[in-house]
Amino acid sequence: MRPLSYARATDVDGAIAAVARRDDGAFLAGGTTEVDLVRQNVLRPGLLVDINDLPLNRVEDLPGGGLRIGALARMSDVARVPGVVARFPVISQALLLGASAQLRNMASMGGNLCQRVRCSYFRDAASPCNKRDPGSGCAALGGFNRGHAILGTSDKCIATHPSDVAVALVALDAVVHTRGPGGEMAIGIDDFFLLPGDTPEREHPLEHAELITAIEVPGAPVARRSVYLKFRDRESYEFALVSVAAAVRIQDGTVAEVRLALGGVATKPWRARRAETALLGRPASAASFALAARQELAAAMPRPMNAFKVELTQRAMVRALSTLTDGEA
Amino acid sequence: MNTEIISPPVERGPETGTVALIVNGQARELRIEPRVSLLDALREHLGLPGSKKGCDQGTCGACTVWVDGRRVLACLTLAVTCEGREVTTIEGLSPGGELHPMQAAFITHDAFQCGYCTPGQIMSAVALLDEGHVTDDGQIAEWMSGNICRCAAYPNIRAAIREVRDAAGGE
Prior knowledge:
The complex is a heterodimer of chains A (329) and B (171).
Chain A: E1 5-8, H1 12-20, E2 25-28, H2 34-39, E3 47-50, E4 59-61, E5 67-70, H3 75-79, H4 82-87, H5 89-96, H6 101-106, H7 109-114, H8 120-123, H9 165-171, E6 175-180, E7 183-188, H10 189-192, E8 211-217, E9 226-231, E10 242-251, E11 254-263, E12 270-271, H11 273-279, H12 286-297, H13 308-325
Chain B: E1 17-23, E2 26-32, H1 38-45, E3 64-67, E4 70-73, E5 86-88, H2 101-108, H3 118-131, H4 137-143, H5 154-167
Parallel strand pairs in B: 1-5
Antiparallel strand pairs in B: 1-2, 3-4, 3-5
Helix pairs in contact in B: 2-5, 3-5
């Protein structure tokens, strides 16, 4: 690991100022991605500002049934908050199906949203990678891309966004709150994650020294019946090949309300809006679910190694919706 | 924000400096750079080689220790971030030289072959009992999945955990 300086912040504005005054400054929260990538020479900060003592770790209920999740709340702690388990099971499940118990004890919610891709060409610090070294090319396009994205790709980058809980948060229209040198911002989570396009190095709209302070989840009664379904190469402690966050309300046998988002298949946590639109007002049946899933995946751009994801994603969507509506169709 | 009245925290490093840690209940001071991991600090600077370096990238769990009573990965933790926090390693699991019941159960059930992952397995297993994720083998397997055993001693590791669970009257 390259030499670096360290500072431990005691208040939010001090942390922001410390990062702001150095171009090579960066925040350090749980460190589970960051320390790893600094050691690999993929990230090269000269100063790490430790924000773990900042008072941003509470999870509070909001009026109207929502949640305010402090950016430094740990994955393991958020997963067991009674209000999360009862009102947003999809969040709790997504958290507990991610990483390992040790990593969940370390990783913060804000850091989870900022985690970097698992593409091996990004992480090897040697291959051409437009995300790590803009303009250098994309080794994954013609390389080993079995785990890569089929939705939201560009000819510059096909890396899959790795987060599980972000998929649930995208389905729930969460809002990311930030504070930085320019003041405070509230960013809808679907806008927080950027498609790679021609600038895959830019993954979110945060400016230098802008810190995530909280994630708000609006009240959503539909989420009481929600599920996070994850398929992977091994049963535990693995990133998703395909995952689905789903919530649905059935009325008189038809879909009255539905939230769907996909993980493991797209360059950002993927809100499946085409499928949602296709489902509204339709019978809660396997046939409707399959049709909606097919419409969502019509835009897929598979490659030979990851073409299996097109079918697997559709089956996962049908399974998630069927699980939630079992007995109501 | 009003930048006039804000004082950023003091920068330390990149040169070697003094870092004060509390490890296994003892105050320790060491001279390290900020980039030194907790794992290297324990093994190379404090004479505590029980925590193992398997992958050094957060994949294997061999370096599992407790920070403020929570199981974490020492390889992805910078030592300097542990100032003011309590670090517990396998060497501090059972002060006084007696084996911890989990250590004894690992021996009874032959819960290892090469033994390299064992300190991490045991630090996770004891934490697992505190967390209460030991209802059945499926739950034990899921919540122990962050500790890889290349010798695949998993059935015996689960047997050791069950024994300690049952001896404690737990579920």
